[in-house]
Specification:
seven-stranded mixed sheet, about 30% helix, alpha/beta, single chain, eight-stranded parallel β-barrel, TIM Barrel, Chitobiase, domain 2
């Protein structure tokens, strides 16, 4: 998991639009005559600033201006699309001051049209030659793109904005792109001056990887339901689709378990530094799951075992080999705790805890930790993981664990989350060749709790200093040496909270690095270029300010002046 010591190619014209974006128009030699700015130039500039970078962008045509008569049209037979329309209207109404009604007529009308299931015809029905599809392959010229579970097509003309997708998740992701095509002030909660112009053109977009996650450690420091939901909204902005909640560790147990009530009542009563801690009732957890689902994120709960278990060991003496409960722990060291592998009660504990959690969790994954079990001998570790993995599958869930699982016997279909720093672990590569799937979270690239620089007031530095460029410049397909690219299920950006106490702390450490990890997970590999990305990233700054997100103004990024 964490810390050893403190615990396809685009055509040239498309590349110039998508990759180079706004900077392309600022780089002409000074001796050349000034070029007249055209609506197509402006359209291309805005379309090229989207994060994550879309798979295909075709700029051109008349822009659409949201006005007092704009309506959002949704199919009359889909409550799910209606909810997405309501979500979009809730974004637009406060800042524009317009009523933006959502109407269930399902037709092609003036305004914003949301379509589900049927292919969207017109300029967006074909993609540029060589644009990668969802699996990273090449899509031939003039071939319709299969949008799949999360793809969308956004077509803007002078009469309408038409957003189509095969499934609702794609519509929701398309709404996030539409937000970025509007001025940043659209995110504010009071009436702004506008105008609210959506540039003409077509975006056809599908994700590179199926799993794109963000992890929040609520064990080191506890975060309320409202704080978690705020983070869910931030993750959703950049098309992240998994919320990994680290629910247990040495410093705190954060989820109610009826069969083991002292886990939350006692084990959840503190946190790093000795604060009051806290825990989620089952109703709280269901609310987080519900809210996340409304933003098309799946909750991935983690119960870390057999190490990182002091909160559980302090709550129940019988889980200790000695039969004596240790005191609660509020420090940050790691590797000192372990469930007693030889006791039958340990597996009853695992079964009952995971069973209750599985019943609360509609998503496919249960994360069982498995890292930094330094107080568990290797043979005992293998025994433990071999006994606990079948419990997960018994409850109809997929095993997810930190990459040390590769040193045991991963069950069929298991997923390992890689958190190393150089990708040299041969046993991980060998396990991947044998069928183990991987989620990539290299600590020196994807860990949002690493300091940006030596002077960063928050975070740790055991994996190194991770500036914005460092967090962006890596490729999941090649990071683990010897592992087949086909084994990579996706990426995740973990945020450990030894030093993170408030939502403002979350903002500062996640932004601007989180959007880069999201782009690595979503965008075609051919779009991956720092010099272009930093321009697109800079354009996000005013949007974060409008949203009340206090971010780190990295000197590596050409932020616009205030």
């Amino acid at each position: 998991m964490r810390r050893p010591s403190v615990r396809n190619h685009f055509p040239r014209i498309l590349c110039s639009l998508l990759l180079i974006g706004a900077s392309a128009w600022a780089s002409a030699p000074s001796a050349a005559p000034a070029a007249r700015s055209t609506p197509a130039d402006a359209s291309a500039t805005v379309l090229a600033r989207v994060v994550p970078a879309p798979a295909s962008v075709q700029a051109g045509g008349a822009s659409y201006v949201i006005g007092s008569g704009t309506r959002i049209h949704v199919p009359g037979n889909s409550n799910e699309v209606r909810k997405i329309g309501d979500y979009l209207a809730a974004v637009l109404r406060p800042s524009t001051g317009y009523p933006v009604p959502v109407v269930a007529d399902g037709g092609d009308r003036d305004g914003i049209v949301l379509k589900l299931g049927a292919a969207v015809s017109g300029a967006g029905s074909r993609t540029a030659a060589g644009a990668p599809g969802a699996g990273g392959g090449q899509v031939p010229r003039d071939t319709a793109v299969a949008l799949g579970a999360e793809g969308y097509r956004l077509i803007v003309s002078g009469q309408s904005v038409t957003l189509g997708a095969e499934q609702a998740a794609g519509l929701f992701h398309g709404v996030q792109t539409l937000r970025q095509l509007l001025p940043a002030a659209v995110e504010k909660h009071s009436v702004q001056s506008g105008p609210w112009t959506v540039p003409g053109g077509t975006i056809t977009d599908v994700p590179r990887y199926a799993y794109r996650g963000g992890m929040l450690d609520v064990s080191r420091h506890f975060f309320s339901v409202a704080q978690v939901e705020r983070y869910i909204d931030q993750l959703a902005l950049y098309k992240i689709n998994q919320l990994h909640l680290h629910l247990s560790d040495d410093q705190g147990w954060r989820i109610a378990v009826d069969s083991w009530p002292r886990l939350a009542a006692y084990g959840g009563s503190t946190q790093v530094g000795g604060g009051p801690g806290g825990s989620y009732s089952k109703a709280d957890y269901r609310e987080i799951v519900r809210y996340a689902a409304g933003r098309y994120l799946t909750v991935v709960p983690e119960i870390d075992m057999p190490g990182h278990t002091n909160a559980a060991l302090a709550s129940y003496a019988e889980l200790n080999c000695s039969g004596t409960a240790p005191p609660l722990y509020t420090g940050t060291q790691v590797g000192f705790s372990s469930l007693c592998v030889s006791k039958d009660v340990t597996y009853r504990f695992a079964d009952e805890v995971l069973g209750e959690l599985a019943a609360l969790t509609p998503g496919p994954y249960l994360h069982i930790g498995g890292d930094e079990a330094h107080s568990t001998g290797h043979a005992d570790y293998v025994t433990f993981m071999d006994k606990v993995q079948p419990i997960v599958t018994k409850y109809g869930k997929t095993v997810l664990a930190w990459h040390q699982l590769a040193g045991a016997h991963p069950v069929a279909g298991a997923v390992a989350q890689y958190w190393g720093t150089d990708g040299s672990e041969k046993e991980v590569a060998d396990a991947a060749k044998a069928g183990l799937r991987l989620v990539l979270s290299p600590a020196n690239r994807a860990y949002l709790d690493m300091k940006y620089t030596a002077s960063t007031p928050l975070g740790l530095d055991w994996a190194g200093l991770v500036e914005v460029k460092d967090s962006y410049n890596w490729d999941p397909a090649t990071f683990v040496k010897g592992a087949p690219a086909s084994a990579v299920l996706g990426v995740e950006a973990p945020l450990w909270t030894e030093t993170i106490v408030t939502s403002a702390n979350i903002d500062y450490m996640a932004f601007p690095r989180l959007p880069g990890i999201a782009e690595i997970g979503w965008s075609p590999a051919a779009t991956h270029q720092w010099d272009a990305y930093k321009v697109r990233l800079a354009a996000q700054g005013p949007r974060w300010t409008a949203l009340g997100i206090g971010y780190y103004r990295s000197p590596q990024v050409p932020w616009p002046s205030d």
